[in-house]
Amino acid sequence: MRFRSPFLLPPLNHLAQAARAVLQNTAQINQMLSDLNRVDFANVQEQASWVCRCEDRVVQRLEQDFKLTLQQQNSLEQWAAWLDGVVSQVLKPYQSTAAFPKQPSSSCSNGLSTVRW
């Protein structure tokens, strides 16, 4: 079974194109930074530690990295690379477990490769 749903790929393409437009707009990036600076990250850290048992320093580092990446006005491709690094780092402790899949299913990989970033 292939991951070629006609209902899923157009919204993903639309989302990627909309994200690119936002990331190229300095005014919107500045507004996002302003909004982020009003977020109560102490509360976010508390909830994250309860929900996913992560350490406060992990949430702090993600907050700092996210804001820095936003300030650098990176491209969508750079954001995707940053997010890939975040996911890899967060999942690293679990990679040696038996329940951790070694690679995504081919149907998922084939479908996502058709998204136009």
Written account of the structure:
This protein has 117 residues and is mostly helical. The chain has 6 helices and no strands. The protein has a domain at 1-74. Helix 3 packs across helix 4 (56-71).
Radius of gyration: 17 Å
Q: For the report, how would you describe the main beta sheet?
A: none
Beta-strand content bin: under 5%
The count of helical stretches stands at: 6
Counting copies of identical and different chains, the oligomeric state is: single chain
**Averaging pLDDT over every residue, what do you get?**
80
* Uncertain residue segments: none
Order of helices and strands: HHHHHH
Helical content class: 55-70%
Content-based structural category: mainly alpha
Q: What sort of overall outline do the alpha carbons produce when their principal axes are compared?
A: globular
Give the tally of β-strands. Answer: 0
Gap between N and C termini: 24 Å
InterPro entries: RFX-like, RFX1-4/6/8-like_BCD
Pfam family, one: BCD_RFX
Domain RFX1-4/6/8-like BCD: 12-101
GO molecular function, one term: RNA polymerase II cis-regulatory region sequence-specific DNA binding
Short characterization:
This protein has a domain at 1-74. It is an all-alpha fold and 117 residues long.
Keywords, separated by commas or semicolons:
66% helix, 117 residues, mainly alpha, globular
